[in-house]
Specification:
There is one protein chain. The chain has a single domain, classed as Ribosomal protein L17 (50s Ribosomal Protein L17, Chain: A, Alpha-Beta Complex), CATH 3.90.1030.10. 56% of the residues lie in helices and 14% in strands. It is built from four helices and three strands. Strands 1-3-2 form a three-stranded antiparallel β-sheet. Helix 1 crosses helix 2, helix 2 runs antiparallel to helix 3 and helix 3 crosses helix 4. The radius of gyration is 14 Å and the shape is globular. 20% of the residues are buried.
Length: 112
């Protein structure tokens, strides 16, 4: 299997990834569980690569994934400029203490 199910059906999982992507590119760092962060990393790396390409088709593909035009604009105008010289590895995952309620491993995922 090439993806994590995250205890959700496909529609809920896609919606969660879209909202995580929007929050991640808005704040440039978010705190979430380790499984969600590892899944988010795959999509975020692809979105930054699309932003570096910069053409209209790439922008429309990003809008289909993120579904917030303001965030896509920030991604294409600001974030992509920082990574012109870098080929991959745009994100960093830092482990934090477990969550108090259920002991889930928490991490901080941020742009490098």
């Amino acid at each position: 299997m090439s993806y994590r199910r995250l205890s959700r059906n496909s529609g809920a999982r896609k919606a969660m990834i879209k909202s995580l992507l929007a929050a991640f590119f808005t704040h440039e760092r978010i705190e979430t569980t380790e499984a969600r962060a590892k899944e988010l990393r795959k999509f975020a790396e692809k979105m930054i690569t699309l932003a570096k390409r910069g053409d209209l088709h790439a922008r429309r593909q990003a809008i289909a994934q993120i579904a917030d035009v303001g965030v896509v604009h920030k991604l294409f105008e600001e974030i992509s400029d920082k990574y012109k010289e870098r080929n991959s590895g745009y994100t960093r995952i830092v482990k934090l203490s477990p969550r108090r309620g259920d002991g889930a491993p928490m991490v901080l995922i941020e742009l490098v």
